[in-house]
Amino acid sequence: MKDKTFLMIPGPTPVPESALMEMAKHPMAHRSKEFSNILKEVFEDLKYVFQTKNDVFLFTASGTGAMCGALENLINEGDKVLCLSIGNFGARWAKIAKSRGAEVIKIEAKAGDIIKPEVLEEELNKNKDIKIVTLTHSETSTGAANDIKTLCSIIKNHGALSVVDGITSLCAMEFKTDEWNIDVAVSGSQKGFMIAPGLSFLTASEKAFKMHENCKHPSFYFNWTEHKKSLAKDTTPFTPAVNLICSLHTSLKMIREEGIENINKRHEKLTLALRSAIREIGLKLLVEDDKNASHSITSILPPDNITVPDIRKTLKDDYDIIVANGQGDLENKIFRIGTLGFVCERDLIMAVGSLEASLLKLGYKFNLGSGVKKLIEELNKN
Fold first, then answer.
1. Which of 13, 131, 155, 277 has the smallest count of CB within 10 Å of its CB?
2. Cα(306)–Cα(90) distance, rounded to whole angstroms?
3. Is the CB of residue 182 less than 8 Å from the CB of residue 54?
4. Coil, strand or helix: which one is 58?
């Protein structure tokens, strides 16, 4: 059926109709008082989401743009940067740091695992001159989630700066920038913020901003100093994506209304119920321990003799549901189901039912309906 496709991927995520309608309107002047009033509210609501007293900068760019905006405003050539990688997006930090001439040290966990605090402490004790530590909260490529609170506490005690990718964890998992001593945090619009791709966000602590002031060659487009000057005037240094910001204005009001704590609980409930349903069907999860699992994305191994491309194709062709493939070394080895953003219990019941129907068509032997039954039982708890 046309116009019926539903995204169950880690981004772009489903968008509320009210937010979609804002994108369909004629653009307003980006230097007008009307738009400045919208920006002022957006900046305040972003601080609420990030749980910070510091400014949150808004970039017309993808989440990777904000990642560049983080390191390109901090690194001088020769600086020592420790990159904690639990997947493709953790590895991206290392690539960006190298592009700025940093001396990069990497700690890599195997797919599905997380960074152990003792491993981080050991590395920091060996390298007292590490200036910056990059890390990922929710690793989109695997569905694993680091204990950011503990890791950032260790980084703070060492004296280094913590730079955190919260792209698929903001508006899905507990994330307290100030309380957890996160120096720089970034996120993107097409994830838990429930709008289309094209915007990204960054907040920096006072300590991070002081380091930025000593950066010899800061980014031009993502320059924190210029964005801070413009933010004080309720505007942006360059032409912004006006309609996307109006859409964000609407979605942030929805986030405020539901409450960030309730949003986090909703995502946790959906994810844990999905994980239980997948196990009931007899499939294996890449991240085995629920405590280490992202509440945004779940990575699933296919049954023996059935391929990931066949599962994804059947879901798309027969049920108009799109789930994600694995990335890099995990391509065609896992498929990923998103529970991120504007997703509700009905959507999950539909997705698991369609997955069961697809597996049946592909010849997988299991107790038909067991996954949906388990899902509904879990969703009805508490």
1. 131
2. 30
3. no
4. strand
What is the H or E stretch that residue 298 is in?
A: strand 297-300
Q: CB of 362 within 8 A of CB of 213?
A: no
**At residue 220, what is the residue type?**
F
Q: Could you tell me the two tokens for 204? A: 């920096």
CA neighbor of 131 nearest in space, from 177, 191, 78:
78
User: Whole-angstrom distance between the N-terminal and C-terminal Cα of the chain?
Assistant: 36
Distance (Å, rounded) from C-alpha 238 to C-alpha 30?
10
Average pLDDT, the chain: 97
Tens digit of each residue's pLDDT (9 = 90 or more) over 202-252? 999 999 999 999 999 999 999 999 999 999 999 999 999 999 999 999 999
- The three-state secondary structure class of 162 is strand
| Closest CA relative to residue 192, chosen from 300, 46, 82 | 46
- For residue 12, whether the previous peptide bond is cis, meaning omega lies within 30 degrees of 0, is yes
Residues whose CB falls within 8 Å of the CB of residue 144, separated by 6 or more in sequence, listed in order: 86, 87, 109, 112, 113, 114, 286, 287, 292, 293, 294
Residue 61 token pair: 């760019």
pLDDT digits (tens, 9 = 90+) for 42-100: 999 999 999 999 999 999 999 999 999 999 999 999 999 999 999 999 999 999 999 99
Phi, psi of 255 (to 5 degrees): -65, -45
Q: Could you tell me which of 157, 135, 140 has the C-alpha nearest to residue 84?
A: 135
b/e code 334-356 from CB counts within 10 Å (16+ = b): bbbbbbbbbbeeebbbbbbbbbb
| Full-model pTM | 0.96
